[in-house]
Structures are given as C-alpha cells and as structure tokens.
Amino acid sequence: xxxxxxxxxxxxxxxxxxxxxxxxxxxxxxxxxxxxxxxxxxxxxxxxxxxxxxxxxxxxxxxxxxxxxxxxxxxxxxxxxxxxxxxxxxxxxxxxxxxxxxxxxxxxxxxxxxxxxxxxxxxxxxxxxxxxxxxxxxxxxxxxxxxxxxxxxxxxxxxxxxxxxxxxxxxxxxxxxxxxxxxxxxxxxxxxxxxxxxxxxxxxxxxxxxxxxxxxxxxxxxxxxxxxxxxxxxxxxxxxxxxxxxxxxxxxxxxxxxxxxxxxxxxxxxxxxxxxxxxxxxxxxxxxxxxxxxxxxxxxxxxxxxxxxxxxxxxxxxxxxxxxxxxx
Length: 328
Prior knowledge:
By secondary structure, the chain is mainly beta. The chain has helices spanning about 90-100, 125-140, 180-185, 195-205, 220-225, and strands at about 10, 20-30, 50-60, 60-70, 85, 105-110, 115-125, 150-155, 155, 160-165, 170, 190, 230, 240, 245-255, 255-260, 265, 270-280, 285-295, 300-305, 315-320, 325. The two termini are about 30 Å apart. Mean pLDDT is about 80; it is low at about 1-80.
C-alpha cells in the first residue's frame, strides 16, 4: 500500500526562460479510509501536463506517469521583491483555481508568489482542507523562495489584496529526516525505560494474559509523544505520528510512501508503546503493534520493536506533524 499524504492537486512554475526540460514523474495514488483525507488524489510538479497514462493497478494502487514540461516563470509583475506581494494569480495558478472552484466538499487553495500552488477538496472540515492545501503548496517550493499563503477556503477568497512575504530558510518535505529538526524543532523532555519489565509486558499482552486495558499507563510518556512525530534518522526514514487518540506510521519505499494507521495507542511507565487496531491505507488490517522506548533525551530517542527488542534504533522526537510539508 502506497500513499502520498498530501492529497490536493499542486503545481509549481520554476526554471529559466531560455530552457525547457521535459521529464516524467511517477506519482503513487491510493484510496484511503483516513478521516479527513480528500476523496481524490492529484499530483503534478511543474506547469504543463503534456500527457498522462495509467500504467497499472496492483493491490488497489494506481501508478500514474505524468510527463511534465517545466516552463520558466518568475511570477507576475505584481510580485514585490521588497517584502510585500500584491496577490495576483499567474496564468497557471488562475487556471488551476478555476478548476478548483468546481470541486465539492470543504476545500482550500494555497499559492506562493514564486509560482507554487496547492489545492484540496472533499475534506471533513475547512481546517483540514486548509492544512493539506498549504502543505502541498510547500512541497513544491525551494529554500529561499517566498512562503505559500492560503488564498481561498471553500471557494471564498480569504487572502488580502497585499500580504507581507516571508522567505523560507529551511524546508521539510515528507519524508526527509535531514531538515526535519531544523523546521519543527526537537521536543524537550527526558525518559528512561525498563527493558526487562517492558519485555515482560509485551509478552503478556501478546499471549493474551493481559489485554490493553490491563496495561498500566504512563501520563508522562504519553504527554511526551502526543502531538509529535518520532522519526528515524536513516536514508529511508519512517516516522510515527501520535495524535490525541490514534496516529499514523509513514515510511519511504522505492515506489512512494507506505502509510498505516492505528486507532488508539498507550504508553506504559516501562517504555512500552502499543498501537492498536492498525490497518494499511487501503483498509487491510495489520492488528496491534508495540515498540519499546529505551530513552528520550533532548529530542534524541533510542527505541526497538518488541519483535526484535535487542535491536536498537536511533530516532528524533519532533515538535510537529511530519506528515505534511513545513517551512521555517
């Protein structure tokens, strides 16, 4: 199951006026049961989509190959370089916005004075739609470009005529661990687990000796994880996002981003963290999974999956939601 977390359509105008480069971008698309995820998925990087071919369907996954022409654009004349922007859509942003206005459900449109844009529709709330559109717009930016703004929500313009601009100094795109800490910041707080006791808890839970209600809970460790992302520091990182109740696991794969969800989770005083009723993004069940957190110190984490508790991994605890592109 492969899934791109940013579901809206997006685009960007970048390049040089004297050069046009044609390339093919493979974009993984998948259905989802995640609440708040848009009903449809689109992805385009660049300005003009010259062809689109459905290659194959496998395990409910559609791989589309979009051949894109990167055309030069330095924005409209309305872009002020002095730190303010008179908000005027360029031709490609305007064309995308016209199509966007026909979409149903809660929707949003975001754009950058330097040419990127992102749009979303079919969400449960305007806030969800706004978050996804802004994230997807940022996923097509580059460092030192000016940040995206929300242009419209539910088809109504919310951007003022003139807005201050902010140049991006650090940019995070899912899933790249290198810039994550610079953008989100590391979470403060310390914790030390007890491997022997956590291993015994995991064994008792796996054997059915105790159920999830029988696991002692640690408010301290849960507070450390809630609303944060635990991300590994590898070439192909993955992260766990812990929401108020459930969460997600996202991981890089050669074909895209693998996504699974869990309905609920708890953490024990010994460092056992269990995620319950997990399922893949296409709805196929996974079941319950547990990991052991050995230590957290100044945002640096050492943990192990209980299935291989002797094999430790390094991670970082981020103060933010790594599912979405973000800037600083």
